Amino acid sequence: MKFTGNKMFEKFIYYTIILNLIAMVIESEPDLSNNFKDKLYIFEVISIIIFSIEYFIRTIESIRDKNKYNSSFFGLIDLFAILPFYLQSIIGFDGRFIRVFRLFRISRIIKLGRFSKSFELLGKGIKNVKNELLLTFFISFVMLFFSAAGIYYLENPVQPENFSSITESFWWAVASLTGVGFEQIFPVTIGGKIFGTIISLIGVGVVAIPTGIISASFVQIVKQNKNG
Question: CB of 91 within 8 A of CB of 85?
């Protein structure tokens, strides 16, 4: 019997994900009683068991059908959805290392994409323009490095605490190129202000390019699906 693609199986996993995400939100509330926290933990364990069984079933069926589920996007998302729990259980304490891995619990919301036609279309759109995106990301990295290095040499002599190195200046570069900005960290020299203004203006275009590429590809796929 094939479980993957079975409507009852897919719906069960879908609703389990929804309930798990709701439980994750409730769990973050600071004023929960210990009794309620215990119940949420039990539900977390049940969810992990369900997701683990799902991962095992999909793995077995992928071997039988000779597809690459485990190395696919959703295969990795399914793995990350259960990985934090097992890492915490094996290591036995909730240190900083484990807390970082617990962030992967958020990946369970991406699991919903498996059941979304729109998510599937978006994935196809990104795949169709992956070469163009790689080029724009390379340009973005060059601009990021140029911005960080430039502001470091301009501002370090007068602000050594804020621009102590090129790596520390990357935060400012990211904020400037994306238009977010940092209120606490900003250039004070004339050269730094001019450089920051130019970088901010260029950043608008750099950020907009990949957005435009993905949007155009997505619109094209939607039109093809309507015409098809």
Answer: no
Domain boundaries, given as residue ranges, for the chain:
7-115, 130-227
The token pair that represents 65 in the structure block: 């059908």
Mean pLDDT of the chain: 80
In what helix (H) or strand (E) does residue 93 lie, and over which residues does it extend?
none
* d(C-alpha 138, C-alpha 60), whole Å: 38
Same fold, 7-115 and 130-227: no
For 110-151, how does the pLDDT look when each residue is reduced to its tens digit (9 = 90+)? Answer: 666 666 666 667 777 788 888 888 888 888 888 889 999 999
Distance CA 134, CA 173 (A): 20
Query: What is d(CA 170, CA 149) in angstroms, rounded to the nearest whole number?
Result: 8
Tokens 């992990």 belong to: 48
What is 130-227's CATH topology? Helix Hairpins (1.10.287)
Q: What average pLDDT does this structure show over 64-74?
A: 80
- Using one digit for the tens of pLDDT, what is the confidence trace for 185-219? 888 899 999 998 898 888 878 878 888 888 888 78
Taking CB atoms within 8 Å and a gap of at least 24, the contacts of 141-149 are 143/177, 143/199, 143/202, 143/203, 143/206, 144/170, 144/173, 144/174, 144/177, 145/173, 147/172, 147/173, 147/176, 147/177, 147/199, 148/172, 148/173
> Is the CATH number 3.40.1440.10 carried by domain 7-115?
no
pTM above 0.85, yes or no: no
